[in-house]
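Q: Two folds, back to back.
A: First:
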Amino acid sequence: RILMVLSYFHPFRGGAENQALLLSENLRRMGLDVSVLTRSFPDLPARETLHTVPVYRAIKTVNVRTLFGALYFLSSFFFMAVKRKHYDIIHCHIVQGFHSAAAVVAGHLFKQKVVIKIANTGASSDFLQVKQLLGGRLILRLLKKADRLIATSQLSADEARREGFSDKQIALIPNGVDTRRFMPSERYADSRTRIVCVGRLIRIKGLDIMLEAFSQLKRAGLCGRLDIVGGGPEYDNLSEKGLALGCAEDVAFH
């Protein structure tokens, strides 16, 4: 029995949210009992079932910096304590959520296993973001008591080792691709010189670097079109960069 925990969940759509939903659905198809704990929002139900997955929106927050983390931690821990007989494993998505710290405490007290997945590496590393929190270094020390830390790349595994996590704790599991949904198609065999990028238009995604790479590929005659799907605060900057690089007419924003 598994309790998935993350800050945002459906209807919010992002990498971690989609992965958590797909993982929960597939584990339930395999016969495992999986439920999700996430943050509560005024316009969303406190309890519902999404695609066969029970969802509890019981993590409370308040828009006050000094109280946000405390209430987040306490409400997460309270739910885990009350429901402790309903799950055996707590699987936390994204290291820097206060729910990860609550899970480690609950796991220790109630003799349950805790798995935490690293979401970000490099300049936006989960570990860097934890250290920026109030009491962040204490939280990081606490997280080192987790049973397993899932790294999706060698880079994130190396970062975890530098932070003091042991090789025994780290499991290297790259993000997978469901080949029943995504497969080569002869219909698009002539589109090999086209790049499509899907994601939020935010600085940490490095879309400015992609534009520079595309402009070089275009000048070399190796790529003719770039489609960018998504919205965000970097739209104007990226549009201007495309003009400056001389490739704007071959870049389409959707």
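A: Second:
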Amino acid sequence: GAANTHGTNTMIVIRDHLPEAHLPAGVRLYYSGLEEKLEPVFGPEEKALAVLPESIDPARCLVALAESRVVGILALQDRAGSFLDPSYTTMVRHYGTIAATFRTMLLMLLDHKVAPGDLYLDGLVVDPSLRGQGIGSALLTAFEDLAGENGFTTVSLEVIDTNPRARSLYERLGYRQIATHTMGPFSRLFGFRTTHHLTKHLPPAP
């Protein structure tokens, strides 16, 4: 469905997958918004953008389009799979065996075990030039609607300690912290020390 965001004449259309024509742009936006987390695993942008298109499931995300340009992306994960899910074979092909093993281990540190009945938000990125126009909120609303329509009872996400703005947005929307995870010795590598796990109960579907 389409959502007209307030304060802008741009019509935002939310799609429930990343269309093939928009794959490179979607992957670039996702990487640029989550670089702190993704660079240690996939390397600098040029390298990452060669690997990521083969490492995602385009059906497991919500995408905001404005005039056929990708302006926001929300990655999804449930017990059946996730948006970002590179195979070990893909990693070896791009990095060689030793580096692929190390990078896969780093990715496992970021990995999140999804509880039954939970739809997990694995990264939300909005085009920096369009922030504050309601695109993130439109994607979050679509995320919760999608979860409710598909029988999920909770939605959850993690927010890193270096992003207090995002955290206050989620708390305003009714998300509550249930756990904190520390990156331990890897915090230097990733550039953040802790992630806060937030969850929200969905009303039962009518």
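Q: And?
A: Confidence is low (pLDDT under 50) at residues 1-7.
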